[in-house]
User: Fold this.
Amino acid sequence: ARKGNGGDLGYFSVFDMIYPFEEMSYQTEIGDISMPVRTTYGYHIIKVNDKQEALGRAKVAHIYLSFPNDATAEDSINKEKKINEIYLKLEGGETFEALVKTYSDDKGTVDKGGVLPWFGSNRMVPDFIDAIKELDKPEDYSEPVLTVFGWHIIQLVERKKPGTYEEEKENIKRRMVKDSRYQKGKESIINKIKKEYNFKEYPSAKEEVYATLDSSFLKSAWTIEKINGMSKPVFELGELTQSQQDLGKYLEKNQGRRGMKPLDDFFRDQYNMFVEEQCVAYEDRHLEEKHPDFRMLMNEYNDGILLFNLTDEKVWSRAIKDTTGLEAFHAEHKSDYMWGERLDATICIVNENIEISQVRKVVKKGTDKEKILTRFNNDSITSVFINEQLYSRGDNNFIDQLPWARGLSKVFMINEYPEFKKNRAISGEASLFANINAVVAPEPKSLDEARGLITSDYQNYLEKEWIKELKAKYPVVVNEEVLSTIK
Assistant:
């Protein structure tokens, strides 16, 4: 609680407070005082001052006049007078943003027109929230509002009310899992398991183990040797019996989790967790015998995983690791992986600061790419760019529309082929042309050039060969008479 506010926590909604506190608050009527309620923070007595419809989330702007730390009665009077003057200016037609810039003490929002980040009802003092709920539409503003921090004039920017159950369902699920109330569902399941399997515990045996927890446990140095000779059951569940030794092993393993909890509380918590874990594990071991559909589903999952692992071993991973087999498969099927007709071409892109005819003369002579770039480019200006490779039909629009014959093409403007401008310092007036060095006849692709497709085909081949082996080893006999009865 804030100092001096009488313990007032302001408004809050679901998930804003720890669950036992929230539950007791909602059960208590306005003006009533609750019974003491215990949470992980201690004990609380709650008085409910007010309840209202959930605000949801809001974004507002404010003009703020703060109180000095050592404010006097005169300071309070002056601040009230000043906020009323500002309000009259607002009523007189001056803009909210201009008044924020001139008068607001909230320096973090002055340059933003006084706009605060999105907030829920638990993030602001009650007087501030009460003022917001009176604002119906964006740009509505409040009369001057006094809070423990100072004076405000509040303008609504936007409001998001809580959605319908369907709209909020997934968000509620996510928050439930992280919240302590999630334990309620778990407790219900544990109690059901205990009842179904006739849970029976032996408190005296449990207390005997607790009595052995000495100072070594506080240092996370307690060992199960402290309960040597103890073997009494601490609880029974169906056919399961857990002994003092079983509880001791659990405590030894988890003693480092104690934190600041008193030893007695920590022991009770650990014992309850020990019981819960054993209940869940016992139920898990009996699910398949209790639920035939679940058993069949688990068998299906198990068979699926086995088949996946076996197929990976026989087909998928083998195709990748068996480089010799992959090379032999490629050698036998080279004609299946062919390049179509291709162009061996040099594409030249020439910026407007160079006479393109000069570049065409040099390229026509068959001059080496590096020599061309060295001749026309310098450290500060790149005038010529060159793409030199084998092109297949469909690789780019420029190549596709050229005559597929040796020689220089005509000159084109770069703006017709913007793909060549990507990541290059090329002006809109640049030109380009191609020199067709050769038309390359169709030829087989190398293994590296078609490795992905060849590997996929090799996997299909291995799978077919494996199925042949299986059919030979385990002949399949089809009962045609029975098959014919299936519609």
